[in-house]
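Lecture notes, structural biology module. Today: joint structure prediction for complexes of two components.
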Amino acid sequence: MMMRSSVRDAMLAAVPSLRAFAISLCGNVDRADDLVQETLLRAMANIDSFQPGTNMPAWLFTILRNLFRSEYRKRRREVEDTDGTYAETLKSQPEQHSRVEFDEFRAALAKLPPDQREALILVGASGFSCEEAAAICDCAVGTVKSRVHRARIRLSKLLSINGTDDYGPDHTTRGILSAGGRS
Amino acid sequence: MHTDTQVRKPGGRREDQRRIGGILQRVYDEVVRQGVPDRFKELLDQFDKTKEVSEAGTASSQGQAEGRREP
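The predicted structure, tokenised, for the full assembly:
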């Protein structure tokens, strides 16, 4: 029926961002694509539980995130092996000058705790609001905000961007408190 | 007159966060720009076809599509 193809189009439209999210989460393109595939299969099987008119990307991201979480728990050891495989799969990218920067960034991203990483990506790159991210991650909005904040602090340390010595524990704690406190 | 409501020190926290946000977005968009790989187009096309076939009431190629007819 009409509704089916519009649902399909909505799923299709969400795929590029879903892939980017999956790759950022697991740091491996092949596994990320398998994760996207499994997400789409699950979404199609459970399409009746999707309410038309609601946020399709958020629904798909939630499914993917939950799949990743259960897989991550199973394969915790393998997740460490991110840097090399990533560089391999994206070797053909043309922008050589930013490759080093990108690789460094991905390596740093991989070192973040998963809950911080997913919060940062959802809010900082996927374009979800903190409220939407909280629904996807099944946690409080304040929790999302503090995770995003901690992720950013951690990243700037890992990437040793200038002035990182300024971030003592006091600064960090204060930042989290103020970020989490603003509703 | 200048009204510097947000003073940005070079190397300050705000500047760091701006840089990190920028790289994150570029790393992410690099993947988004790759669009939809064929395997996912095919997957979703199949979903569409399966539904159409089951509506026509002659589902046979996809075993799972059978038995979901309208009364």
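Point to remember: Residues 2-26 of chain A form the longest helix (25 residues).
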